[in-house]
Every structure is written in structure tokens, then in C-alpha cells.
């Protein structure tokens, strides 16, 4: 079966609730979602919680809330922990038919079992066609008779996955390439229980700048979707960026809504090589989405500044802040660092820095005094700057108003500060 097949496509995402929502899980969920929607198929979310010791309810809640925040909805939902009886029936049947057996074990460590259920490996070569990697082959002999259940009543991951895919009618399995080593075991189990083989597509890993796998153990909170939610990234920007990790539309287009991604997505354009997670690029993508939501974001900026400075905020200042941020948390960084204080409080100005390059402080002060009577006439100020030199006129004006070597242009400052405050600040340094 291929992507073009008319058969009803069914995909599933099956996260384990052993940690918060990982960006790799979110990216794989997105690709499954896009593949299903593009082909008019069904998308199933299945919580794989057969590992009772490591699975936690708070992690499941985090995964579900994270996917909801991102806007990745599913058609059906299952928990493996609620389906144990189904797996047990398959284990018993496999034992009866001889494809699995109860193995007497010699415990080597405390806590190990004296009996487990092992799959009887036929020791054959497995070949499957991967939509991304092409033909993949494995010699399963090296796998030995692997364990599929701790006991006939306690099935493990590989068996549960295969049974679920069969019972749920899964046609395509899109997952990270770190699962590719699981595929031969699962195909052997499929053949033993006469389950149809789904079409596989193993997605490239997400890597750090050193081309190492992005993992919670090494990279900490960088890998959690929650981290980016708390920092004020937009969910649509995250989805947009996740889509570009290992896929591109074959054009120069980089900014997509979820709806546009559905239309553009083609699994044949997914790369084989690992995708490097670049926060700088993510911030750029987020900025582009901020622009698409400019009115809403500017309202948020205004409210945050109001809360911080306890006064009405000039619309021009909101524009200034909007231009300087790439994520919402940048607003707090600007206010907390004092970067915006000079808009609300008269700054201390080092008059020795008033002069522009080869000019003198006296010349700078003379230019400022000549600006005072024409302060409201921007055209007149610009004409003066043309006559005496842009830097010689506009630098001291901007520096007198802000006290900073980096700030918006002087005309923007005058608009925000108003005539009286601007006049007061100029007189303070002359």
C-alpha cells in the first residue's frame, strides 16, 4: 500500500507516558496528523503504558494537554493499560500454536523472573519497504527468542503494539528512526498471528548543533514542548517549525498554517538525514507568525507594559517593542532588564557622549538648542540635519532623549515621550 492508495488510511501515534511531551514526539504526531488529513484517513492516539513502573498519569496529562495546545486533534483514543485482556488472549493463543513458549529462566539479579514468555524466532531474513528509506533488511537470527510477556497475563511492548495495530486497522506506521530496530521483531509477531503488515516510514531524528540526538537525558528542558509554551512561542509557529525538521515542500516557502501544511505535505519529501534543531531559526519562524497575529500580540504587549509601568502606553511604544521581540517572553526580558526604563523615567545622560564622531560637545549642544524651537516640526529638523550633517544633528538629539547609544530614531522618541518631556530632556543636557 502506498500514499496514493484508495484504501482508508489509518495511522497512530503511540507515546509512552514516561516523560513530558518531547519535541520529537510532537513532530512525529504532526507528521501522522498531516499524512492522515492529506489522505482523508483516520488518526489514532494511543497511550502505550504497559510499563506500569515508569508510566505516570501526570506525564499522560502533559502529553494530552500539549497536543491539544498545538491543535493536533485525534479521531480515536486508547490506553494500552485498558486493553490487557486482549493481549493476554493473543499470548495464550501464541503459546497454544507454538509461536511462543513459557521459558524457564535462571534469575541473574534480584527481582528477575524465573519464568517469562518468549517468542519462538524462526531465524529468518526480514525485508520491508520503508516510505522514507527504501528497502530495509534484517537478519533476525541475532534477536534470539525475545521476550514478549513477563507472564501469560503481563504482555510487553512489542506484542501489545502489533496486536493494537491489527485490532485498530492501522495501515501506516510513521515513527522516529530510533524505532527501526523494533520493526523486525514486530514483523515476526505480525506473521505469527497472521496480521497484515503496515507500511512503515521511519522519520529522521532531531539532532542538536553537534549532530547528536536531542534527548531529555543530555539536553534537559530543551526537549519539552512545555518549555516553548512557557516562553511564549505560538503553537502554530512550533508546528510550522516542527514540519521543517526533516521535510520541506520542495519550494522556498517556509511559513505555513496547519491547514496549509496539510495541503503541502508529501511524505516522499521527508529527508533520510537527521534534522538539526536550531533555536535561532525557530525564533525567526515564531516572529513571522507574530506578524501574522500582530494586532493580538500588540494588545498583549500593551497590557504587559501597563502592568509593569502602571500607566497608559503610547501606541508607538507598542510598535517599538513589537519590532524587538521574537517570542512573548522577550517582552518581560526587555522590561526586567531596564531596556525600556528611559521611556518612563528621565535618563542620566553622559554629556561627553553627545558629540557625533569628529564633532565637539559644544557643537552638539548648539545643534540641540537650535532644535528646541522646531521640536514639533520633523521636516525642519530633517532639513537642519541635511545642512549640518545627519549624525551631527540626529545623534545628539537621540542620545539626549534616551541616554543610550542604541534606541529608536529621535522622531519616534519624540512621538512617544511627547513635546514637554522631550523639551525637558534636551534642556537637561544643554
Notes on the protein architecture:
It is a single chain. The chain is an alpha/beta fold and 430 residues long. Among the domains are: 167 residues, Rossmann fold (3-Layer(aba) Sandwich); 50 residues; 79 residues, Arc Repressor Mutant, subunit A, CATH 1.10.10. The chain has 18 helices and 13 strands. Helix 1 links the parallel strand 1 and strand 2. The longest helix is centred in the N-terminal third of the chain and has 16 residues. The N and C termini lie far apart (80 Å). 35% of the residues are buried. The N terminus is likely disordered.
User: What is the CATH first-level class name of the domain at 1-78 and 204-292?
Assistant: Alpha Beta
Low-confidence region ranges: 1-6
Mean residue pLDDT = 94
- What is the CATH superfamily of the domain at 1-78 and 204-292? HUPs
The CATH architecture of the domain at 1-78 and 204-292 is 3-Layer(aba) Sandwich
Instruction: Report the helical percentage.
Output: 40-55%
- Proportion of β residues? 5-15%
Estimate the global geometry from the Cα principal axes: elongated
Instruction: Briefly note the structural class of the backbone.
Output: alpha/beta
DSSP strand tally: 13
Q: Do you know the CATH topology of the domain at 1-78 and 204-292?
A: Rossmann fold
Reported for the largest beta sheet, the result is:
4 strands, antiparallel
Cα distance, first to last residue? 80 Å
Put simply, the count of helices is: 18
Biggest sheet strand line-up: 4-5-8-9
Radius of gyration, whole Å:
31 Å
